[in-house]
Structure prediction request, 833 residues.
Amino acid sequence: MISVGTPLAPAPRESSMSIAKVRPCLEASGVRKVYGAGTAAPVEAVSTVSFTVPHGQFVAILGPSGCGKSTLLMMVGGLEPVSSGIIIVNGEPMTGPRTSIGIMFQDPTLLPWKSALDNVLFPVRVLKRSISDYREAAWGLLQQVGLHGFEHKRPHELSGGMRQRVAICRTLVYDPEVLLMDEPFSALDAISRDEMNELLLDLWQQLTKTALFVTHSIREAVLLADRVLVMTKRPATIVEDLAVPFARPRSMALGESREFNEICRHLRERIEEGHDRSQALRLGATARRREQAT
Amino acid sequence: MAFLDAGEAVGNGRVLRLVLLPVGFALAAIAIWQILCQALHIPPVLLPPPSDVWTVLRDNYAILFGEALPTLNESIASFVVASLLGVGLAISLTFSAWVREALYPNIIMFQLIPKIALAPLFIVWLGVGETTSIVVAVFIAFFPIVVSSATGLVSTKPEVLRLCQSLTASEWQAFRMVRFPYAVPYIFAGMKVGVTMAMIGVVVGEFITAQHGLGYIIMFAAGASETATVLAAIALLCVIGLGLYGIVGLAEWLVLRFYGGEMPISGVI
Amino acid sequence: MSVEIPAVAPSRSVPAIGSSLRRVRPVVLPIATAAATLLLWQFAAVRLQISAVILPAPVEIAHELWRALPVLISQAGPTALDTLLAFAVAAVLGVGLAVVITYSPLLRDTLYPNLVFFQLVPKVALAPLFVIWLGFGSTSRVAFAAFICFFPVVIAAAAGFAGTDPAALQLCRSLTASEWRCFMLVRFPFALPAIFSGFKVAMTMAVVGVIIGEFISSQAGLGHYILNAGSRLNTADVFAALGVLCALGVGLYGAVALAELGIRRVYGRH
Prediction:
């Protein structure tokens, strides 16, 4: 149950962002998620998480599978209710999904009967805005992610990486302020994943948004983010808040630098510590139960 | 066809083989039938040769086609009604969890009833006429359509629904833009079964009410031991049945083309 | 399933009673609906004095059922027997043909399209033909019902055999097992779910086939009884017989389902 305050200031991309004066974009305090409360075996998926994210920051939430990071993201996005605690985004407590928040999932979930362009314009239709206003922007987004010439292709004609790119465009087309990404590249092969990382790095240079990016890849987290929050399971909470000291624009070559790998090693150790500790807690609990039985 | 793997190259030779073999086999079977009848002097009451059947068709086509019309009309009418009712009920099941939980299990239970056995009941209620045949047919065709459509509408992948939710879409929007389109293959699968069932209902109705239609002709001719006529009427029924199924299949193909070629029945891209 | 709307945060913990009610709802609600329908039916039949010819009250049907039970059960006998026989014939022939089709591409390409064609054709029209060929006895009914339910079995079994995981087959062959052993150890177990789904359809169709046969050619059996009672406008009798027929149908279907469970346990779930 470690409450984390504002991190060491990362190298600001936009000098106009003065963290001290402006209210943070995202504040989570005491957030907890329990499944099956009031039944015989409640499961604590997220165990008292608190952190704040200033505007314009790219935060990675890093942790092993099943540690509750996706659940946390869903709560931030208003798709899951919190069991206790509160999440405030842009000054308003989260009570449900918002159009100022864009969510990207691991599964691109493109509609098979629509072309790439129409898939990108899907949110516009849902939000009942004028298609003609957004068509050019959608087209431009597809160019930006390198899908020139594929605008009228159906999803089954696109590779996995291409579909995720369409999904990125779809998330960006209605210009949400906050981006939540739940392991968007985890289902891709290693090469496609590297391409997507590079794409995201490039895109981020042009976007003025705040992002939360869930991943279980240490390298991906350090490469993409300004700040890494490390989560463990049991208890599912944040054990480390690390500022990534690399200036932007970044390139993929960063992954070979010594400092990069030092940071990765440090994070790996923290994750393993958390794992050992949760093991110890579980063994301790088992031992205690055995003691009480005798 | 289930046996064509995605990777198999379908060259011209293979397509030819796929068409020629079954057709050739069918033609050969008919030829053997003709030869056997003549060679073994099988009594025409038992099994008339194809030539006899053709003679009946040629000489009596006015009557036969005249009786085919009511069968065709009733089949189409009952199929349309069953589809509208079936899809309509399936849609309302989607929107209310209460209605769904109350009705759906009962509908599934109804599936286990040999519904054709209720035909005499419908005769008691509605008398001996074409309404009865239609109602029996609707009753039989309705269930596969509801079950299939409801399955399709309810089993939209949760990931897609979550996407809609994150965009603050309303239930109606999610239904119109996502649930229903994804359910279309299921609806058509149900309708293909439904059209076959509708025809069966009509024919059985005609068997036991013996008023008009090809079913009536079959029963009448069977009673008079005019087997060639029976076969001729059966042939016509087969043509009608295949034709109706083919129309639904064609409609399905067209709609799926509009919805984009490869639409996986289960799974989200 | 409707999309869950997130509650207001922070949410109170859900009371225990509410959640257990929700869990039991899927079972209680359909039963309650059916019960409510029966009650409404009874009420309407009595209050509105609907003629017993049109819609007898459930109580009256139950009464009739009790009275005619021995007769009904004796009539159910021939129907059940014919159904089982037809199903057995169709099952054996169907699976047999499916095996042949699986192992002979030539026969497969020749026969399978014809089988699918026959499945789509209103086979019910051939019922009188079977009577012409085999007379008014049980044989024609069994043959007709077997004819009807043969096709779903072949098609389902063939699909099941063909859809075996090719990796498993390759493994088997790489261990130099004979084709027969490969079949028994790999193809057949893999195809069991498909075969049984075909069996379930076939059992339902067999009942339908026997009933239709009894409609047009019988002096015995539940189908004949229903037709007879209908022509005498003894509607309560019709309902009673229908009830017994339903029980029969459900029982036979259940037997197949049970058999499936048993076989699955032998071969292990997969």
